Amino acid sequence: MLNRWNDQEASKLEGDLLKLRVYTSRLQGQDPDLVLHGGGNTSVKIKETNVFGEEEEILYVKGSGWDLATIETAGFAPVKLSRLLQMADLDELTDLDMVKYQRTAMTNPSAPNPSVEAILHAIIPFTFVDHTHADAVVTISNTPGGEERIREIYGKHMLIVPYVMPGFILAKEIYNLTRDFDWNKVEGMILLNHGIFTFHDDPKVSYDRMISNVSLAESYLASKGIEALSEEEGANANLEQLARFRKHVSEAMKKPTLCRLNQDQQAVAFSNLDEVDSIIERGPLTPDHIIRTKRTPIMLGKDPEARLSRYIQSYQNYFEKNTPGDLTQLDPAPRWGVWPGVGTVSIGPTVKHVRIIEDITAHTMKSIHQAEQLGGWVALPEKDLFEMEYWSLEQEKLKKGGKPPAMQGKVALVTGAASGIGKACVDELLSQGAVVTALDISADITSVFDTGQVLPLVCDVTSEEQMKDAIEKTIIHFGGLDMLITNAGIFPKSLYIKDMSDSTWSKSLDINLTSHQRLFQLAKPYLDEGIDPAIVIMGSKNVPAPGPGASAYSVAKAGLTQLGRVAAMEFGGDGIRVNILHPNAVYDTAIWTDEVLQARADHYGLTVEEYKTNNILKTEVTSVDVARMAVAMLGPVFSKTTGAQVPIDGGNERII
């Protein structure tokens, strides 16, 4: 394990214990073999003088919701050490009361809630305390004879503690275990099936101990000839099957969700392991992960609907078997899946959730493979895992959960998305919580959106091959497709019919009409498996009110509108809505430069402002206005509407 300590960097922080605590916390958080997504916790004890002139010792412990990789001083909750030690002396304390009393002992009420292991950190009589869920340590404990192996490696210099549920129970267990204990005899603690603690008054020594002791576990695995997962090429995935699976998982979760397919070579190799279906039934890497991943993944493959039905029934049986009777069952849907020969699937309502699942499962797969070579993967008993999944603190979080954005978990695809109306549509979809595949022929598309919620792809919509590839990448990345805003188009140079060239005519028809028809064809199988699927076509005022010199554009847009009307009739039986939006005079787009606007205004004898508001309502229509209407038409307000044509133009006398 790499020791990341840098004397030069640390020397800049000398004398500031809290900043040193931040520094070594981040060192550990940077290594995913130590800490994943909010896991682990660290603390430092600092003597401070309060407003009354009294000196008191404060435990600064990692706050809830903070990640060690990016934590700052504000991420540490300051708690009076004396009160934590009083709490440790209590015979009984529920975890909910523990959280409440820890909060009342804080010296800064605006700080985050202290870690649930704050009392445990208080008990340990050293200035710096580090705790991680190191893969190698937990892997060894999750094997037959794992405790004996841990004692062989660590028994002479570490305190070994059998698994106890985190929270007050764990703190109390260690408090009782160490009443007459000489802490100076050990470098840290190993919590079986959970993780590792190290501590010292010097931050470097505590950190060094973490790295060296985790390295001992890694060296032990190496000494046993443990091999890494091989790298194997996967088979082509049936993407329609993946989209169908996502739809059924969303139904089980009672909300739209994402399903990302991981086809990297190690995921494929894991999916091909002998008896993988049996191995994955044994439980997670650490009990902390069950809150994210559930106890087991689902096996995918043939007949995913039947497999999901069996998984749901199994989860319900697991709940009924273990519940004391006063718990609310969580949704029974899996959070990840193994697809033999193809890879793995990560499931969650947001990109952030999916990434966390993907990271956790990558480490889980590695550890399972290592443990199998040590005699077999053995997780905690089902009852212990259930207690963690239905921990009172987690149940309390569910009660406080806010309402998600309206389109969270839904997947959209927008063409012509690098600028103008297309970009505004993507931005509006993002504000509603959707994820979006953003297509544009311009390479700028790859740098326009700085968020993981967008899959930006350079794509020529007139190329069937590129469009097919873009849709397939959407399904792999997000799991399905629910919404289309088919916006890509061009406005050809104004030419009268008698002067029209074949190339101008053909190009307009190809981009403004045929490309949309091709998109419908390619997207339809996935929209069939979509969640409340809907299409919005970006038409034009030129359809009901054409003008001279715009035949190439007007005819293509009229054809597109007719295509939309027919699609509404053909797709309606499959629950897919198709509506058309007719914008006009939208001037905040790339083609309307200041010079062009001024020239057009001068032509009509108007100021630029008068020209931009030259409609019945005397209002300017912007790309954002069009985007809001387009996204509204994808949503529940228009859930009973299809085949409609809606103008957004401030009121146009010719159309009215």
Low-confidence stretches: none
CATH class of the largest domain: Alpha Beta
> What is the mean pLDDT?
95
| Proportion of beta-strand residues | 5-15%
Q: Supply Rg.
A: 30 Å
Number of domains: 4
Distance between the termini: 72 Å
What is the CATH topology descriptor of the largest domain? Answer: L-fuculose-1-phosphate Aldolase
Structural class: alpha/beta
Helix content: 40-55%
Q: What key phrases describe this protein's structure?
A:
L-fuculose-1-phosphate Aldolase, alpha/beta, 25 helices, 18 strands, 656 residues, 4 domains, Rossmann fold, seven-stranded parallel sheet, seven-stranded mixed sheet
SSE topology sketch:
Blueprint: H1 7-11, H2 17-29, E1 41-49, E2 55-62, E3 76-80, H3 81-88, H4 95-104, H5 118-123, E4 128-132, H6 135-141, H7 146-154, E5 158-161, H8 168-177, E6 188-191, E7 195-200, H9 203-223, H10 239-253, E8 258-262, H11 265-271, H12 276-279, H13 290-293, E9 298-299, H14 304-322, E10 336-339, E11 343-348, H15 351-373, H16 382-389, H17 392-400, E12 411-415, H18 420-431, E13 435-440, H19 445-448, E14 454-458, H20 464-478, E15 483-486, H21 502-527, E16 534-538, H22 551-572, E17 577-583, H23 594-603, H24 608-612, H25 623-634, E18 645-648
Parallel strand pairs: 5-6, 9-10, 12-13, 12-15, 13-14, 15-16, 16-17, 17-18
Antiparallel strand pairs: 1-2, 1-4, 2-3, 4-7, 6-7, 8-11, 10-11
Helix pairs in contact: 6-15, 10-14, 18-25, 20-21, 21-22
Description:
By secondary structure, the chain is of the alpha/beta class. It folds into four domains: 7-223, Class II aldolase/adducin N-terminal domain (L-fuculose-1-phosphate Aldolase, 3-Layer(aba) Sandwich), CATH 3.40.225; 239-400, L-fuculose-1-phosphate Aldolase (3-Layer(aba) Sandwich), CATH 3.40.225; 411-586 and 621-648, NAD(P)-binding Rossmann-like Domain (Rossmann fold), CATH 3.40.50.720; 592-620. The protein contains 25 helices and 18 strands. A seven-stranded mixed β-sheet has the order 3-2-1-4-7-6-5. Helix 20 (464-478) packs parallel to helix 21 and helix 21 packs parallel to helix 22. It is elongated and about 100 Å long.
